[in-house]
Amino acid sequence: MNDAKTIGSNALVLDTAEENVTVMNAEESKLGKEVSLIEQRAEAVVVASGADFEDAGLFLKQIKQAQKQVKDYWEPLRVSAKKSYDEVLNHRKEMIEPLEKAEKIVKVKVNEYSAEQERKRREQEEAMRRLAQAEIDRHLNEAAEAEANGDAVGAEYAMAEAEMMEGVSIAGGVQHQTPKVKGISQSKTWEICESECDWSKVPVSLVGIELRPVDKAAVLRLIKMSKGQVEIPGIKFRETYTTSVSTR
C-alpha cells in the first residue's frame, strides 16, 4: 500500500510539473502574440497631430508595460538558468583545475629535462672544441719546430694537420637528442633574469635595435634573433623550453 501511495505521489508531482510547463508555454505563446501585435501597431503609428501625439504617448506606456511583462516572465527562468550555469562552471572548475595543475607539473619536468640535455650537449661540444683546439695547437707547434729545424716537408704536413683539425672544430657539433612523442612539441625560448641584470649598463642600442630606455620586449627580440648568442651589457638571460600538447 505504501508503495502504491508513493507511486501515486510521484505521478502527481510529475503531472503537476507537466501542467506547469503547459501553463508556461501557453503564457509564453500569449506574450509572443502580444509582442508581435504591438510591433505591427508601432509600424502603423502616424504622429501628425496633437491627438496623434497623445495616442502615441499612451501607446508608448503600453509598450513599456509589455516590456515589463516579458522581463518578469523570463526573470525566474533567467535566474534559474544562471544558477544552473554557475553550478556547471563550478563543477567543471573543480575537475579541470587538478588536471591543469598536473599538466603544469609534467611540463615543468619535461622542460627541465630538455634544458638539462641541452646543457650536457653544450658541455660535450665545448669539450670537443677544446680537444680539437689542443690538437691544432700541437700541430702548429710541430710545424714551427719542423720549420726551425729546416724540415719544410714536416712543417707543411703539420700545418695541413692543423688546418684539418680546425675544419673539424668548426664543423663538429653534438645534436640535442630528445625523444620524439607524437602530439608533443617543444620550442626553445629565452627569459630575462631580471634580478641579475644591471639596467644601468644596458646600451642605448645594439645592432640597430633601440634598447634604452630599457625595453624588455626589444631585448628579448634581440636575444631571440641571435638564438641566444648575443651578449648585451647589463643583461642576464637564460634559455628555457615550452611544451605544447595536441591530442590529435
Structural class: mainly alpha
User: How many strand segments?
Assistant: 4
Helix content: 55-70%
**Which term fits the overall shape?**
elongated
Largest sheet: 2 strands, antiparallel
Radius of gyration: 40 Å
Secondary-structure element pattern, one letter each: HHHEEEHE
Query: Within the largest sheet, what's the order of strands?
Result: 1-4
N-end to C-end Cα span: 57 Å
The helix tally amounts to 4
Beta-strand content bin = 5-15%
Q: How confident overall, as mean pLDDT? A: 82
Low-confidence runs (pLDDT<50, min 5 residues)? 1-17
Q: Outline of this structure?
A:
This protein is mainly alpha-helical.
Q: Describe it for me?
A:
- The protein has 248 residues and is mainly alpha-helical.
- Among the domains are: 13-105; 183-247, no CATH class.
- It is 69% helix and 9% strand.
- It contains 4 helices and 4 strands; from the N terminus they run αααβββαβ.
- The strands form 2 sheets. A two-stranded antiparallel sheet has the order 1-4. Strands 2-3 form a two-stranded antiparallel ribbon.
- A hairpin with a 2-residue loop joins strand 2 (205-206) and strand 3.
